[in-house]
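Section: Multi-chain targets

For targets with more than one molecule, the full set of components is provided together so that the structure can be written out for the assembly as a whole rather than chain by chain. Components appear in the order listed by the source. The example entry contains two components.
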Amino acid sequence: MIDEIALKELIYKMADDLLILGHRNSEWTGLGPLLEEDIAFSSMAQDKVGQSYALYQLLHDLGENDPDTVAFMRNAEQFHNCQFVELPIGEYDFSLVRHFLYDTADALRFEMLSNSAYEPLALLAKKIKGELRYHTMHADIWIKQLGAATEDSIGRLQESLIQAFPYALGIFEPSEYEDQIKADKIFEGEEILQERWMDKISAVIGSTALALPDLGTITPVYGGRKGDHTAHLQPLLDEMSEVFKIDPTADW
Amino acid sequence: MKSLDPRVSRLNIPDQPPQLESKVPLDQLGTFEVFLQLKEGKPYHHVGAVHAPNNEMAFVFAKEQFSRRLICSGLFVVETRNVKVTRFTEGEDTVYNYISETFNEEGESQVFEFFHLNRRGKQHEHIGSVEARNYDEALALAKPEFINEKPVFNVWVVKTSDILFNDDEDKIIWDTLPEKKFRDAIAYKAADKLKEFKEKQQEAL
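Its structure, encoded as tokens over all components, is:
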């Protein structure tokens, strides 16, 4: 028997991460550094929103409200995303570093979930494997390119990496249901995910002139998973839900 | 709190730009030609070009640029300046009529890919490859190989070694979530609005 509360908590935090980051990354639409990248980054942002929709649909099947209501009618403290994804897009170096750090973790998480005992989740993980492959391919190539190009590009990425890292570790904030979710064979847990993530990003960073911050000296920014957010989240939610709140039946 | 969306905040662009500024130099990247294969076994055809600093980045851009709305089985890119182009012909005149059968023998033997333009206004399509020591020899060898009753209006020749193909294991990038209705413009009822507009115009007359 699967513990539904633990399962829902896992799906909520994944869905919220993807919705918020998808919305954030879409802020680059029309402003990307070159047309081709503008299209690629916007398209990946749409993928993320699409993936969050699929996860909200899983929650709906588990008895939660419908995806639109869940996405648009909650306040910041009801969101379970890590603080990392709600931070402003900053300059392109920060958005790229976040894309690299987050999407690597996301791809690994779904890879682990493709063996989940909760079948709908395992099925979804297999369905979006291709999208995630492209996202990490895109991120890795950009980091390798700019991480070994000019003094300016290396300096900018390095600075963003240092700024982003404590927040990135917040992706792996342990859940209070960690033991339950492992016992039910739904997910192998945040700790293993973080280890795999460190290996993956270390390999990419190792092929550039960049250096990863020393894990021992960093305090991860936790709290997001429990509804504790920065001041940046609520304005994003207000903007995202503006149309829905004026007219919930609006269609286009 | 003020909006964080740069489209709203305009990225802090000053209202009044200075009267005179230095002209910004061009910073355009080079272009890469993109070829797609829609189905296993079908020929690759040219779909367009992307700007990129190298072929790896060109590949990543090309994927979203040209195949985000369709399933395909392969994609490759080649730097535009590495595409050699023959003259154009018209009517029943095939471009192979103008290919010299003599060539020099300089260079190491390697494979050249051939792309034909079979209809004006359409895209070049991969037709096959030829092993030769240089472009001229490749063209001369291609002439008896690829000439047939249908005229070819233009030929592109590319060294296989200049091409970046997708890895086989990366083919899953085209295997994406099918529920993407929100990406299509089908929900825009433009036809209805046009009809309504025309009817109103008729009434006004």
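Residues 11 and 96 of chain B are 55 Å apart (CA to CA).
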